[in-house]
Amino acid sequence: MTDIQDFTIKNTGNQDTLSQNISAACDMMTRIYSEGYYPKMKVYRSWSEHNPIIEGEFAKPEVYRWYLQRELAKLSRSGAEVTISPSRKTVSLNDPKILDALDEDHWDFTKKKLFLFPAERIDLSLDRLEHYTGTDARNFQRYIMFTNYDMHVEVFKSRFPDCVCPGRKVQMPAYHHKMDDNLGLTLINIGVGPSNAKTITDHIAVLRPDAMIMVGHCGGLRNRQEIGDFVLASGYMRSDGVLDHSIPKNVPITPNHLLNHHLQSVLNKEGMTYRTGTVYTIDNRNWEFMKQRVVQEIHTSRSIAIDMESATVATNGFRYRIPNATLLCVSDKPLHGQPKLGQAAQTFYQNSKERHLDIVIRAIALSKKHFPGGLPNASIRAMDEPLMGGGS
After folding, report:
1. Which of 67, 102, 131, 190 is the most buried (most CB within 10 A)?
2. For the chain, how many structural domains are there in total?
């Protein structure tokens, strides 16, 4: 057993002392984990009649230290007393028993939690995140952008030449423009399809990012759309299917209003042509081969664009309480005799890639300016909410 003693954070009113104590608590959590134990956090709230004490365990706390420091400061300033102590020994990721701790079907929706994920899930997700993206999990920043085109990666690397890049060839490479306190940007090339979108957002979720934005291309579905126009999603038609067992299809999924407001502000300022509306996300790239069925759903849902990832990212954002948004660029109009063909697509990509990414980066800058402590997420929270991340 480790000889580390319990450490308690109390707010005495001196903010410098509080900051030092929170930093020391995070150091202690890292030390506990390095010695082979999960650090446990116990939060005591004297004012709570039904949930005065809430406990939780963590893994690899140094990876999301910025988040722990922010949330511990919120709890302490509200009058909570926080104690850090060693808990049980860490479970090997090769141990078959770890699957029992990962099963979200066992969540108790009537019991308030401290954190959304158990320690074993954090451990496994961070390991898989590094495997898929080829970068250390500590490099991930608070603002995550997803793309499925190398051209957006080229623009990102050109804009941020000192960004951290993958050290090897991987399935979903990530690129990080690092800033103090993890306030920078991360871009991940997730490839094509809803399965990849679900996989990466499952693991990104444990980092508790402040925002996720899909930066992709789409097929325009309306007569008056032109190649190069933008689509700002206001809702989604979920025909991807990969999260239907976790979030019923009759649950409304909408992007974060404030993120959309910032994206719209930049689009308007730059005089860009765009439409807001429903994005139809499908799991079949060759949906044209079953045109009648798909077009019927497009008409029923009043969708204005079709893609393969946006609804998946948005639904997992809703599932894991992460503010998200979607900005797409029309690359083809398959229902109007303008399918995505090789040479025309390459010309479009060259003309749109810098402008597209620049709009999203500028919108994120507005979000950071107006909400430095993270975007409000009350609209995607429920009665089972964890204490950390905005709960009370």
Report:
1. 190
2. 2
